[in-house]
Amino acid sequence: MLSVVASMDLEVEQLYVKVSFLQGDLEEEIYMHQLEGFADTGTENLVCRLRKSLYGLKQAPRQW
């Protein structure tokens, strides 16, 4: 394929689908517990608000 592109003086673009789900902005507010090992002493009961999509979210394919 690249030889055809080069011989016809075309442009090639690529998309890295594996990380594309992480680029979507969320429309609704979603909160999650802090991951084990990331919570500081005294802040174990705090939660994190997601601003970007994560793998496994129902919303991830739609936000992409």
Summarize the helix and strand pattern as letters: HEEH
User: Helical element count?
Assistant: 2
Characterize the overall form. Answer: elongated
User: What is the rounded distance between the termini?
Assistant: 27 Å
Secondary structure class reads alpha+beta
**Poorly predicted parts:** none
Average pLDDT metric? 79
Which strand order does the major sheet show?
1-2
Radius of gyration: 19 Å
Per DSSP E runs of 2 or more residues, the count of β-strands stands at 2
Fraction of residues in β-strands: 15-25%
What does the largest sheet look like?
A: 2 strands, antiparallel
Helical residues, percent: 10-25%
SSE topology:
Elements: H1 2-7, E1 25-33, E2 47-52, H2 60-63
Antiparallel strand pairs: 1-2
Please characterize this protein's 3D structure.
The structure is a single chain. The protein is of the alpha+beta class. The protein has helices at residues 2-7, 60-63; strands at residues 25-33, 47-52.
Please sum up the structure shown:
The chain has 64 residues and is α+β, with helices and mostly antiparallel strands. The chain has helices spanning 2-7, 60-63; strands at residues 25-33, 47-52. The radius of gyration is 19 Å and the shape is elongated.
Descriptors:
64 residues; single chain
